[in-house]
Amino acid sequence: MTLPAVTALTNIVPLIITAGIVLTMSERMLQQKAVQGESLQKISKAKAGYVKRSKRTQKCGNCDFFYDGSCEIVRGEISPAGWCKLWAKRG
Q: Shortest CA distance to 48 belongs to which of 1, 38, 66?
């Protein structure tokens, strides 16, 4: 028998850690849907962990989800110099 609190916690357990970035299960699922071309709603900048200026080599401008000056998965005006935790290598 699982407790509701335990079940809720399993939804936010880190799934992968890459370059110091922790993606939760829900974030990973969102990323997979976007990669597979499935329809999805854009998420807020806050949920994506968006920052206007990245100190990393990973930037919105070189992300797989950034096309024609906008992001396919994060709402609002997105700077090519920005970054979020859903960044994906162009490939």
A: 66
Comparing 56 with 80, which gets the higher pLDDT?
A: 80
Domain boundary assignment for the chain = 4-71
Give the span between the Cα atoms of 30 and 1, in whole angstroms.
Answer: 29
The rounded distance, in Å, linking the Cα atoms of 77 and 91 is: 24
Phi, psi of 46 (to 5 degrees): -60, -45
pLDDT digits (tens, 9 = 90+) for 19-77: 445 555 556 666 666 666 655 688 999 999 999 999 889 999 999 999 999 999 999 99
* CA–CA distance, 6 with 85 (Å, rounded to integer): 25
